[in-house]
Give the backbone structure.
Amino acid sequence: MEMELWYTEKQTPALGLSLKVKETLYYKRSAFQEIAVLDTVQCGRMLVLDGMVQTTVNDEFFYHEMIAHVPMRTHAAPRSVLVIGGGDGGVVREISRYPGVEKITLVEIDAGVVEAARLFLPEISCALDDARLEIIYRDGGEYIAAHQDAFDVVIVDSTEPVAIAEGLFGLPFYQGVFQSLKEGGVLVAQTESPLYNRDLLRASYRRISAVFPRAFLYLCPVPTYPSGLWSFTLATKLYSPLEPAGDYLPAGLRYYSPEMHRSAFALPPFVRELLELEPGLEHQKILSEK
């Protein structure tokens, strides 16, 4: 009888995601975390950091397109874009689709993530050699604190808020992001599952909305993430994602579209209750009253 190998991520203490594994392609313990790339039957090659699934080649487009194109098209003409985390290169790939972007800065604390992605995730890391890209191996919070009025868009593609990523969910970090953005700047940060990370989502949204004049939450499905439903918090100094200012739409997208952009901000009642938003009000209106 053939032996079966399975990988299980415990997404909560009482729930796990299990995938049948063909083989382990890569394993390394870096100075910061355990890095692995597994070849799975259902989802193809999969990046795992400290036992948590980060991306798979089969479903990564949901996450990467929605974390990148929503802020990129909210801004009228982004020219300088900062990505914090995202060493797999997926967000950089999506940003590289915009010909108007002049500079992309990727700040990733762990060079081992970039190394693994280059070797085993070419579909995701394919833009890491873009001539407009600068890769800096440094803590994202430290980098932000040293750069003011430098970026049109900041995308925080962090891991879960534990260990090296914990600081990327704090109020000082969001204050630093605000200072780093130019007039009209846009921030988006992944803020976890509205089902399994309710306290973190609420806290992150409140911190961001305390710093920025306009804050919005939007949702999209990510099949291999806890609960399959993921949240992003977008904040702006000027623009509203409900009326995107950008008119350029890259070709060949698999999930993002102008229709999906608009629908992502239509929050179900349980999420509005979580954020204490009143029915029918735009996100920032209720925030301005608190």
User: Anything to note?
Assistant: Residues 195 and 245 are 31 Å apart (CA to CA). The chain has two domains: 5-56, 60-288. Residues 5-56 form a domain with the Spermidine Synthase; Chain: A, domain 2 fold (CATH 2.30.140.10). The chain has a mean pLDDT of 93.
